[in-house]
């Protein structure tokens, strides 16, 4: 019998490989994927501080910088659900391979183009390709990992996210300085994209060989063509939104709202066309609570993942290098938070406690720590680096523990055949937070002169998300009738 990731191909049975090896291969994928996207925040901050290129004439530079980041996430968000569905159809390993090769090439090209619109377009294209990684990574782990270790596997693999954010926070400022010396101040921003893109392209070759050995011959052409055709339409829409905002004076928040509306239209279309097939992934009220609550997870990740260097640098009046080292404590907390959160979730599941209650407790812990960080910045005249490092670490610890708990709970509630679509929906809705967070937080910074309001907003969203999890009462997949209708 052929593996689920070999649909559409006729191949010899694949060799048996350790599911733990798969975790660590995908860990590498997360590391470079997140480094590729997180590099934009420090680069934009460097451009603002040095009056470089297209940031020089901006009246609201932080809002514009946040909008550039949100455009990446608009692309990343919109391919989540389609790529999860394509992974269920053509094979999750095939979609992962396409995604990673795409990301490496697009990141390198981001470092060689010129002009604001082209830069934004390449960031959007990078996001569209990377959007295929998440839902298929989660589904592949669930498919190849024993159920009793499911959450741990999800946590171990996604720990690469924390490493990627940490590497980007620490390495980007020195790369910018070296790039300025090597290429000149006007072009120093290009070097981080070239370095991280090349590293991603090299890893993509290794990933291709490993996944081929895991599932057999990969069917790459069909999913690439389908993903590219979908991405071309989305790219035109997103870049048109950016052009309207930049050239016609549209407020940055309105552009972000339009991106969210586009995502919701996509959800409606998918529900109409595939809803009966994917009832437990798309139409179930309890999984919907998880999807909406996940907006706060991605909002927090990209408030700190995009702006943490700027937050620390502004609050403590320190250089970008020192600020990057301090900000890395937030990202680095995932090295502990992701696997420990996954391990605790599996323990709760095996002992009959359920994953939901632990998820609620961890989310409340995260909200309290974000709130404390905001209070410290507001009430302290001269914040110190070490206190900010501790608060950022504790915030990141809870934040990163929450994610594998939420994902494992989603897998528990959805039929295995629809896991790709479910994880695609999870991240599609969650990415609303990633799209809005950089631009809204940047706009609040321009309006208030500091980052406190943006941090308080994040704390409020996290605490509200904890309440949404109380709506989850089931412990297993939604039953459906033979024609795909939910059984109530």
From TrEMBL:
Pfam families linked: MFS_1
Protein name: MFS transporter
Record PROSITE patterns: MFS (PS50850)
Segments traversing the membrane: 60-79, 99-120, 152-171, 191-211, 223-244, 250-269, 289-307, 327-345, 357-377, 383-402, 423-445, 451-472
Organismal lineage: Bacteria, Bacillati, Actinomycetota, Actinomycetes, Mycobacteriales
Alphabetized SUPFAM superfamilies for the sequence: MFS general substrate transporter
Membrane topology designation: Multi-pass membrane protein
Highest taxon of the lineage: Bacteria
Keywords: Membrane, Transmembrane, Transmembrane helix
Species whose genome carries this gene: Mycolicibacterium agri (Mycobacterium agri)
Alphabetized Gene3D superfamilies for the sequence: MFS general substrate transporter like domains
GO terms, molecular function: transmembrane transporter activity
Subcellular compartments: Cell membrane
GO cellular component annotations of the record: plasma membrane
Major facilitator superfamily (MFS) profile domain span: 21-477
């Amino acid at each position: 019998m052929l593996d689920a990731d070999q649909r559409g191909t006729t191949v010899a049975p694949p060799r048996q490989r350790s599911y733990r090896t798969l975790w660590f291969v995908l860990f590498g994928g997360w590391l470079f994927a997140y480094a590729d996207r997180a590099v934009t925040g420090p680069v934009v901050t460097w451009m603002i501080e040095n009056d470089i290129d297209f940031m020089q004439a901006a009246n609201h530079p932080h809002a514009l910088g946040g909008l550039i980041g949100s455009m990446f996430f608009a692309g990343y968000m919109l391919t989540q659900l389609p790529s999860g569905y394509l992974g269920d159809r053509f094979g999750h390993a095939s979609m992962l391979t396409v995604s990673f090769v795409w990301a490496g090439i697009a990141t390198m090209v981001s470092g060689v183009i010129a002009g604001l619109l082209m830069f934004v377009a390449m960031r959007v294209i990078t996001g569209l390709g990377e959007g295929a990684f998440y839902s298929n990574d989660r589904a592949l782990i669930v498919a190849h990992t024993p159920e009793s270790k499911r959450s741990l596997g999800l946590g171990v693999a996604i720990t690469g996210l924390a490493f990627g954010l940490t590497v980007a926070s620490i390495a980007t400022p020195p790369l910018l300085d070296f790039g300025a010396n090597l290429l000149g101040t006007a072009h120093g921003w290009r070097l981080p994209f070239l370095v991280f893109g090349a590293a991603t392209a090299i890893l993509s070759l290794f990933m291709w060989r490993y996944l081929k050995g895991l599932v057999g011959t990969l069917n790459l052409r069909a999913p690439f063509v389908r993903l590219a055709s979908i991405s071309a339409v989305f790219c035109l829409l997103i870049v048109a939104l950016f052009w309207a905002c930049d050239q016609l004076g549209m407020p940055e928040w309105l552009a972000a709202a339009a991106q969210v509306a586009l995502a919701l239209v996509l959800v409606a279309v998918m529900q109409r066309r595939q809803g009966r097939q994917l009832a437990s992934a798309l139409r179930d009220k309890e999984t919907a609570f998880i999807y909406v609550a996940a907006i706060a997870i991605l909002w927090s990740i990209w408030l700190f993942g995009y702006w943490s260097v700027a937050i620390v640098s502004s609050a403590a009046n320190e250089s970008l290098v020192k600020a990057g080292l301090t900000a890395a404590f937030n990202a680095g907390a995932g090295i502990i938070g992701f696997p420990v959160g996954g391990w605790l979730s599996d323990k709760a599941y095996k002992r009959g406690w359920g994953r939901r209650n632990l998820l609620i407790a961890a989310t409340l812990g995260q909200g309290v720590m974000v709130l404390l960080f905001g209070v410290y910045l507001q009430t302290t005249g001269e914040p110190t680096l070490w206190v900010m490092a501790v608060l950022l670490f504790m915030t990141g610890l809870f934040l990163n523990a929450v994610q594998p708990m939420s994902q494992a709970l989603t897998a528990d509630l959805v039929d295995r055949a629809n896991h790709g679509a479910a994880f695609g929906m999870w991240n599609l809705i969650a990415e609303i937070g990633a799209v809005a967070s950089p631009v809204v937080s940047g706009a609040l910074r321009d309006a208030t002169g500091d980052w406190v309001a943006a941090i308080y907003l994040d704390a409020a969203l996290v605490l509200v998300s904890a309440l949404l999890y109380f709506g989850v009462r089931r412990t297993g997949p939604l039953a459906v009738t033979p024609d795909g209708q939910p059984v109530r």
